[in-house]
Amino acid sequence: MAAGEQQGRDYLQRHRLPQLLHRLGALLLYHRPERPREFLIQALERVKAGKRAEGEYPYLMDEANLAAMFELLDVVGQGHITPAQYREGLKTLGLSTEDLQFGDDVNIMLDVFKEEV
């Protein structure tokens, strides 16, 4: 791999641009706005305001969606899921699993799932 290509990859990862672009694409597909460029500009403005704690960060899913997803992962209704199930759920949503701090012997409850996702 050429040095320039590696620098480009490092830049993208350092600024988490693939995750941002994936999230923006998911927001577009979920909401399907009539004016997608304006929608993206507004979403980026909400991200900027959310990072400054001046507004709400634009979320793709609401509490009801998260609860429904948790129920799909908790197929036997135990009230918790395993870290492996959690990782698969994040992958399904297109979210990163790199920074997970859960050991394999931990049970993840609904409130933790909602907060983390």
From TrEMBL:
Gene3D superfamilies: cAMP-dependent protein kinase regulatory subunit, dimerization-anchoring domain
Top-level taxon of the source organism: Eukaryota
Bilayer-spanning residue ranges: none
InterPro entries, per database record: DD_EFCAB10 (IPR049760), EF_EFCAB10_C (IPR056587), EF_hand_dom (IPR002048), EFC10 (IPR039879)
Domain EF-hand, first and last residues per copy: 61-96
Pfam families referenced in this protein's UniProt entry, alphabetically: EF_EFCAB10_C (PF24548)
Alphabetized SUPFAM superfamilies for the sequence: Dimerization-anchoring domain of cAMP-dependent PK regulatory subunit (SSF47391)
Molecular function as annotated in GO: calcium ion binding
Signal peptide boundaries: none
Protein name: EF-hand calcium-binding domain-containing protein 10
